[in-house]
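Sharing in case it's useful to others searching the archive later.

Someone asked me privately for the predicted structure of Sulfide:quinone oxidoreductase, so I'm posting the question and my answer publicly. Question first, with the sequence:
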Amino acid sequence: MTSDKFLPSRRGFLGLAGGAALLAANVGPARAQKVATRAKIVILGAGAAGTALANRLVERLEGAEITIVDGRAQHWYQPGFTLIAAGLKPADYSVSQTAEWLPAGVTLVAEYAAEIDPEARTVTTAGGTKLQYDYLVTAPGLSLDWDAVEGFDLGMVGRDGIGAVYAGPDYAAKTWAEMDRFTSEGGKAVFFRPATEMKCAGAPLKYTFLTEDYASRKGNRDKVEIEYWNPSGALFGVPIVAEKVRMLFGDRGIGTQMRMVLKRMDPGRKVLTFEDADGIEHETDYDFTNVIPPQRAPEVIRQSGLSWADKWVDQGWVEVDQYTLRHNRYPNVFACGDVAGVPKGKTAASAKWQVPVVEDHLVAQIAGDTTDTTYNGYTSCPLITRVGRAMLIEFDYNNLTPSFPGVIAPLEELWISWLMKEVALKATYNAMLRGKA
Ligand SMILES: Cc1cc2nc3c(=O)[nH]c(=O)nc-3n(C[C@H](O)[C@H](O)[C@H](O)COP(=O)(O)OP(=O)(O)OC[C@H]3O[C@@H](n4cnc5c(N)ncnc54)[C@H](O)[C@@H]3O)c2cc1C
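And my answer, the predicted structure tokens:
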């Protein structure tokens, strides 16, 4: 089921990764009269998706009881982590306060959800508060399974060549300190990604390119060896992009090892152990690495009975229809953002296109109506290849979907694409949070 009317178009990219100036005009659909209701709506998670949805729902509903549940007082602008870990932004570039983004008329419960009972329609928080809902939107992002990386703990980040860009703004800054040291001193860098689904699958590649770029800029490229160990047979989920990255890695002297999954690390010996498709272990030493752990739906989701039973069984993503984002078994439950069990779309740019779909279906359902609004899998990733250069990769469930065909070529390393990541993306992300994009 698709509806052209709602597919991201040229505006797809403008909506998140660029064109911030245009956002003042609000590119979203014209707002109809508010729907009067006493519905109790609970949103789990006040990250990119949950906050944007809360801001949009208050504009569509009159009298609804909207509660958003999130135990983290800080809101993290995660696309900034790569820039922090490249020494281009300070750690506080990505940090704001969750409560600042929430509109009047929405109640924040500043606790994590610990239990969901979709039959009884309740959410129980870690502190024991029970919230009854008529409609539930799950948007708690994903959980980084650090414990699954044997031999590692977060306390190691920032020394002995260990980085962890994903772990948060402070860890991203510590990773920069190690990358800066490594690209001055030289040695061997080994990068990798987990075999699970992950948010921003371009980020591990970006960081590999950036490390190579810094070594070159410092005149130390001949002192540095760089390898990328990849769990599958392709470096990216979209074949033409995978091929382009493979070529660029070749041009830049970055070695690859394919079908290798990290099993454990030994920081004392500075050794990473990977397992190949036949179960054979391979060791490699390293002087610098960026640990990216397996990624799964948060525990509260995996225990709720809302996950797919026959797909991603070790990861637990929410079982939703990939076009409507409505739960397949509980029609009053939706998912958006990273937790949604859809084939593409774990980026903030995806959340930007998922949120209006959930909003429309939820409001229509409350009004006793239907809508043909659909999400087509739109995902975007400004794939940084050097400081000052990026490829603007955009795709949906089926194809590459460039926002500016003939103007910005998706597979070319361009300064304009870099600017969109480095300058425009944050303003557009913030506009999304406010429900204005
Ligand atoms: C290094 C890096 C680089 C990235 N680069 C890009 C990029 O260039 N472009 C792009 O579009 N995207 C990028 N992303 C991805 C993007 O940040 C995420 O896809 C996006 O934030 C997902 O939004 P979300 O709302 O699903 O999750 P989040 O924004 O992660 O928010 C989830 C929220 O849920 C809360 N939560 C968790 N558990 C619970 C619970 N039990 N109860 C209640 N609340 C809970 C959390 O505290 C958090 O506030 C990047 C991510 C990383 C890590």
